[in-house]
Inverse folding.
């Protein structure tokens, strides 16, 4: 039995060290794959890598052959990347339909005000607290947030991903209504 297969079996049972080994072994290849999809945008690629691993670990029971983890993970990453491309296209189309305002084209106080308004309106208190800690001044790392909130680092990562998705949608909704 391969070490990958053994790590998959252990990860299925919740072994965090096995999950870490799987992440460390496969993240570089998945990161390179995601970077190619998002045209070298490192932050976006990192988000896609994290989303891919979160989805993979959540669905480990579906994987029949643990030795096939790398290929299976790549399929998950591909789906995440294609979904990101579609979302980028939809957001671009929505933004293209907004009236052109030269003042709004430059990031600044309005952008910060929109981000603060979106954060203030987040009704999910765990997402809001996690985001405030992560994006606060000074920002906290995912490990610091996990320790302070009594959850795992992967739970913090998942919350941040969920917050980003919600915030992106909420900001676009506000912009399409002519915010502010």
């Amino acid at each position: 039995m391969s070490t990958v297969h053994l790590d998959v079996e252990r990860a299925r049972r919740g072994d965090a060290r096995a999950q870490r080994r799987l992440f460390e072994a496969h993240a570089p290849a998945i990161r390179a794959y995601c970077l190619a999809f998002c045209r070298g945008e490192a932050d976006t690629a990192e988000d896609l890598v994290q989303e891919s691993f979160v989805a993979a670990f959540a669905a480990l029971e579906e994987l029949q052959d643990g030795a096939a983890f790398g290929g299976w993970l790549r399929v998950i990453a591909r789906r995440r990347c294609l979904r990101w491309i579609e979302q980028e296209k939809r957001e671009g189309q929505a933004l293209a339909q907004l009236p052109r305002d030269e003042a709004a084209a430059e990031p600044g106080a309005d952008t910060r005000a929109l981000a603060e308004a979106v954060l203030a309106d987040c009704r999910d208190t765990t997402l809001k607290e996690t985001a405030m800690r992560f994006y606060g001044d000074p920002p906290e790392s995912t490990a610091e947030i996990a320790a302070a909130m009594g959850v795992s680092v992967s739970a913090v990562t998942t919350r941040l991903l969920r917050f980003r998705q919600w915030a992106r949608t909420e900001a676009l909704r506000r912009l399409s209504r002519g915010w502010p």
Observations:
- The longest helix spans residues 69-96.
